[in-house]
Design goal:
heterodimer, A: 365 residues, alpha+beta, 4-stranded antiparallel sheet, 8 helices, 17% helix, 17% strand, globular, B: 454 residues, alpha/beta, 4-stranded parallel sheet, 19 helices
Chain lengths: 365, 454
């Protein structure tokens, strides 16, 4: 009989879970799921070495382990701290953690432009979700926010550093998925920026994945920029035979038009499998894809407000009530209005409209 | 006159060179360690001496050495942290400039104890002339058989390399230093794993301060038991203090941690008092990142006892009424100095030096600087003081490396002890541009709270 693997018992917010040794607190919490999962802006389970930078996943370890029950002196980054047997962790049950997280959200939003109304990421932005849940409604920052010029990284990717929260996910992606690293962090402190040295374009089949891993709208798809808001689009699962990647993607469509192609993301915003640039940028026609069906989106997401599956149209009862007669208008606005006339197209009038532009309505005495 | 162990021969002419150093008893400790002691015995001796890290944290060195993982077939490294960039601290520069062989001897003994065959000195970029001094000393030591293969016939090999930094304060943090040494961007690593397990090139590494490593030499010379007798309690041995600010005799002093702060500032042997008959207002006793203390709390602890120049006594009362020994950068302020302005310049420093890796420090340090700049320039609001307090509270302890704490503590301490001065700045913006708050009540003796009856 094979020897049974020893599992570690961990208590997170008084919920016990058994995980394998070497698991991080964050992943143990994800095993439980629900509200005890700390938010993570920089950790990405598919990228080695990521995490520990944004500090939103801070938790309090109230009991180190069975062997050493002392609590940890500081809050720890749950994405990079591995569990011990008998560890007890407080996340939503600790006011200290909630307070610290509030502070972190404020820091992250400090230099963020909050240009959500014109940002392509809005609606699927991790920072939006985070600040909705943990942030405060107003900022206490009264100074000029730092800004950067937008940079085109190659033909397909736009870098808008002003929105960046420096999670380093794209740096790890570029480092681990591509062969030649040309993507990194320049400068330091507040002035640090993601960039390529001397504006080199990133030439690689998988570099488009930096768009998917970006938690904010700092890296966007130039082929889909400003084309549509995500909540007006219908995400559908689709696949194609691709010789470079798995070919499993999500198409963001309206009608038969494919606006955007992304990888499939799980509920923590992490892609299931990375996809290649050909699939992402070049295959923008529904005919290129085998469509599997609508993508399941969390009902809390703004994307699912469109209700595009199982739509029930409201039952029109008026005709039934009136025995098939159409309702009679009490008054026809066109018949009495001087300016609201179907024959006059306002957009064809040069400059502001004058009374001369509207023929006298004879019906009015 | 306190006992000197590190700087006792610093006055001898030509001590920088091997011949003079050797003639004055140099390399005797190395000879003793390499020829008559085992590595474990040396570690044991350092443990016995109670030597504490001189870089700022004050962690027991012997204990740190004993944490070093020793897997088979994996090289171990010793790294000497000479990236001394803390404002107010300049003791390592003095040691390296005038006694390079003392450091090399210390490195030799420590490497022997740790079993490291390759040792690096990571030196601050701004110390442009010191690598030449160190490299010449290394050449001399090579020539005389103290470095290289089979040192003095003992079979122990050691090479020492000097690596220049590029002038980043953050590279004084041990994991950032290791990253920088590996040729990468100097971002602190996320711990664990600690360098003792996975450090330089993923191998077990010990990073020690220059002064710590130099102090190993007298420990071997006189023995750990003798060393532990110097000083009070857990503050054993001697400590270099770099004194600066409003004092008559700024400079590097070696103290044996038995004197009081008052004696250190006013005695002729050390700082020699405050010039022009001014009065003491405040002091930062351990380099820019430790909390500032007003005169009354500096000279006497909250319990009314005189404050001594030891790790424990300076820390007496925690952060509420105490400070830290830190790296020994002793900055003295007289009554003409403005605490708000001073806090602003520290905040500017930490803002400039933040590496930008984790969000609280990257965003918070800049915010603190801007708010302080407003207060200093007469545009402050009363709420700004509470805002500053809240910002520092949210940075402290939530960052990857201690730079966040180091940026938060000076601001916290300034507001804690000098809130009146901040409020005066806000209330009298125009006057604050013309004159300083002055000494006010900061030197008045504090009432001692009677101990509660048991």
């Amino acid at each position: 009989m094979a020897e049974e693997k020893k599992l570690f018992k961990v208590k997170i917010d008084n919920i016990t879970v058994e995980v394998e040794p070497g698991t991080t607190i964050l992943n143990a919490a994800r095993k439980i799921g629900g509200e005890v999962v700390p938010p993570a802006m920089c950790y990405y389970s598919k990228l080695q070495g990521s995490g520990g930078k944004c500090r939103t996943c801070l938790v309090k370890v109230t009991k180190g382990s069975e062997a050493d029950p002392r609590p940890m002196p500081k809050l720890v980054a749950s994405c990079r701290t591995t569990v011990m047997d008998g560890m007890e962790v407080a996340n939503i049950t600790s006011p200290e953690v909630q307070d610290a997280r509030k502070g972190i959200v404020e820091f992250l939003l400090l230099n963020h432009p909050l240009d959500c109304p014109v940002c392509d990421q809005a609606g699927e932005c991790d920072l939006q979700d985070l600040s909705y849940e943990h942030g405060v409604s107003a900022t206490r920052y009264e100074f000029k926010r730092r800004t950067f010029d937008k940079i085109d990284i190659g033909d397909h990717i736009k870098l808008h550093m002003t929105r960046c929260i420096l999670c380093y996910r794209c740096v790890f992606t570029a480092d681990q998925l591509t062969n030649k690293r040309e993507h990194g962090v320049l400068n330091r402190g507040e002035a640090s920026e993601i960039g390529t040295y001397i504006q080199q374009s990133l030439d690689n089949d998988f570099i488009g994945n930096v768009i998917d891993v970006c938690p904010v709208g700092a890296l966007t798809d130039r082929t889909a920029r400003f084309k549509n808001r995500v909540w007006f689009l219908k995400p559908v699962d689709a696949h194609r035979n691709c010789d470079k990647c798995c070919g499993k993607t999500v198409l963001w469509m309206r009608g038969d038009e494919v606006f955007r192609v992304t990888a499939r993301k799980d509920k923590y915003g992490e892609v299931e499998e990375f996809i290649c640039d050909t699939c992402r940028f070049d295959k923008k026609s529904a005919a290129d894809w085998v469509i599997e069906g609508p993508r399941a989106i969390s009902r809390h997401s703004v994307i699912s407000q469109g209700h595009y599956v199982g739509v029930h149209k409201p039952h029109e009862t008026i005709a039934k009530v009136m025995d098939g007669r159409s309702p009679k208008l009490l008054m026809d606005i066109h018949s009495i209005s001087e300016v609201n006339q179907p024959a006059v197209d306002l957009s064809k009038i040069d400059g502001p409209a004058h009374s001369n532009d509207f023929p006298k309505n004879n019906s009015v005495q | 006159m306190g006992r000197k162990l590190l700087l006792d021969k610093a006055h001898i002419e030509g001590i920088r060179y091997y011949d003079v150093y050797r003639k004055n008893g140099g390399y005797a400790a190395a000879e003793k360690a390499l020829k008559s002691m085992s590595p474990d015995l040396v570690t044991e001796e350092v443990k016995k001496s109670g030597l504490r890290g001189r870089g700022g944290a004050g962690f027991p060195t012997g204990l740190k050495w004993s944490f070093l993982a020793k897997p088979e077939g994996v090289p171990r490294y010793l790294v000497c942290n000479a990236d001394e960039s803390e404002p107010g601290t300049f003791k390592d520069r003095y040691l390296m400039e005038f006694l390079p062989h003392l450091l090399i001897e210390g490195l030799l003994i420590s490497s022997f104890a740790l079993g490291a065959n390759r040792t690096y000195i990571y030196i601050r970029g701004e110390y442009a002339w010191i690598p030449d001094i160190l490299e010449e000393a290394i050449r001399e030591a090579h020539k005389n058989g103290w470095l290289g293969k089979n040192i003095q016939g003992t079979g122990f090999d050691l090479e020492i390399y000097v690596q220049r930094g590029a002038g980043a304060y953050i590279c004084g943090e041990e994991t950032a230093l290791i990253e920088s040494l590996e040729g990468k961007r100097g971002n602190p690593r996320i711990k664990p794993p600690f360098p003792a397990v996975k450090g330089l090139w993923q191998c077990p590494t010990v990073v020690n301060n220059v002064e710590t490593l130099a102090a190993v030499v007298p420990i071997i010379n006189i023995g750990g038991d003798e060393y532990v007798k110097i000083g009070i309690g857990k503050s054993t041995g001697t400590k270099l203090i770099s004194a600066c600010g409003n004092i008559n005799k700024p400079g590097v002093y070696e103290i044996d941690m038995t004197i009081s702060v008052e004696e250190f500032i006013y005695s002729d042997e050390y700082c020699g008092g405050i010039p022009n008959g001014k009065r003491l207002k405040a002091c930062i006793p351990g380099g820019s990142s430790v909390p500032i203390l007003p005169a009354n709390l500096l000279l006497k602890t909250a319990k009314g006892e005189p404050r001594m120049m030891t790790y424990e006594s300076l820390n007496d009362g925690g952060f509420a009424t105490g400070s830290m020994m830190g790296s020994g950068g002793f900055i003295v302020f007289d009554e003409d100095q403005c605490v708000v302005r001073h806090t602003l310049s520290l905040a500017r420093f930490y803002h400039h030096e933040s590496c930008g890796q984790c969000s609280p420090c990257r965003e918070g340090t800049g915010w603190m600087e801007r708010v302080l700049k407003n207060i200093e320039n007469g545009k402050g609001k009363m709420s700004d003081i509470d805002l500053l307090w809240d910002i520092q509270r949210k940075i402290e302890g939530n960052t990857i490396c201690p730079l966040g704490d180091a940026a938060a503590w000076p601001v916290a301490a300034a507001i804690r002890h000098f809130r009146d001065e901040f409020e005066w700045h806000v209330r009298n913006p125009e006057e604050a541009l013309k004159r300083n708050f002055g000494l006010a009540h900061y030197a008045d003796p504090l009432p001692v709270v009677a101990a509660a009856a048991v």
